[in-house]
Write a structure and sequence with these properties.
The protein is of the alpha/beta class and 388 residues long. It folds into two domains: 124 residues, Aspartate Aminotransferase, domain 1 (Alpha-Beta Complex), CATH 3.90.1150.10; 243 residues, 3-Layer(aba) Sandwich (Aspartate Aminotransferase, domain 2), CATH 3.40.640.10. The protein is built from 15 helices and twelve strands. It has a five-stranded mixed beta sheet, sandwiched between helices. It is globular. The model has no long low-confidence stretch (mean pLDDT 96). The protein binds pyridoxal-5'-phosphate (PLP). Pyridoxal-5'-phosphate binds next to helix 5.
Amino acid sequence: MKFVRKKENTERYVDNIFSVVNAAKADPNGINATAGCLYDEEGKLFTFKCVFEEEAKIPAARRAAYASSPAGNSDYIELVSDFVLDGRVSNHHKAIATPGGTGAIATAVSSCLDEGDHIIYPKIAWGNYKVIASEHNLAVSTYDVYDLDDLFEKIDAVEGKVFLVINSPCENPLGQAYSLDEWKKIIDKLNSLNKEAVLLCDIAYIDYANGDPKAYFSLFNELSDNVLVLLCASCSKAFSYYGQRLGALIAIHNDEGFLDHYINLCSRLARATWSNLNNAAMINIAAVLKDRREDYERELTAARKMLKDRSELFIRQAKDCGLELYTSCDGFFVTIVCKDNASRDQFHQKLIDAHIYTIKVNQGIRVGLCSVPLKTVDGLAGRIKELM
Ligand SMILES: Cc1ncc(COP(=O)(O)O)c(C=O)c1O
């Protein structure tokens, strides 16, 4: 191939999600369970009132201006770090702003891994991990999120640095979450390794988890020196701010000097890739966190409940009709078990023919309850089971 780099991935890039999303949008009678965004009960994209009220206050010249540094505006970084860490982490930490959670994950990978290095992520996972791994020419191993022994085997099998991606709680697409006890075992495992381990926590959906989803952050106060934790946060999900492309990469480690060095490396990478972030988005989220925190929490609580009502109903009705789902705690999605990918494809098409639009994932079919109003969720599991 001319012009492009030697190690080009020549596989045609087809985003399966976007093609079925478009088909769903074009079908006026369809049930659209394809989206990765939260929709309200009227079928409109869910937005936080406080976010857009604050956004409207930003003057044109501030919106148009460059942000103050490639690493992001310092007030945004400080406020978003406090928001994410929630007073749980007394260990050293430093952050940069990123274009969404994706920018945080890509930066974590570019900054820590060389070509040929190993990345470990869930067997049934957000499809973009595979794209990021392939673009960086990484070796991949995958683990069963329901089986810690399998995860530990995969960790032990890696030669050299361990780079582990965990997307808990609200795993996309399973809705799986590790308990505090399981997190303790994971951190103990990484702490006990005789080599470097990077733990990338993809917490894109954490704000939609019920209970105390950040309890495990306190374990980051007891890391061994061989462990670096990278929290990848997404304003797309947390603030329903998808298109504004904002997130954060928060690094946690025992050695403050190392963190200075690491964030300097990430800042240089940022300068060399996106150069500068969406200034208005950073100004806005900083303002919401500083001045509208109570309003935000109230709206978030309502959004979380809206989602939970949908998933509780779907899971209950799936149980009643015998539709097998992967065990789910919280999140935007639930996934129907379909271990054989060939029959999954047939079933997925059958659902499309019946105007039910879902997303194919490895060994399953993802139902995006985030985009289906409660009245439409009612009876959906039964309809799917009949088609199966
Ligand atoms: C598991 C997971 N991580 C990270 C992201 C990143 O989203 P964004 O880049 O929009 O913040 C997504 C988005 O769908 C996701 O599903």
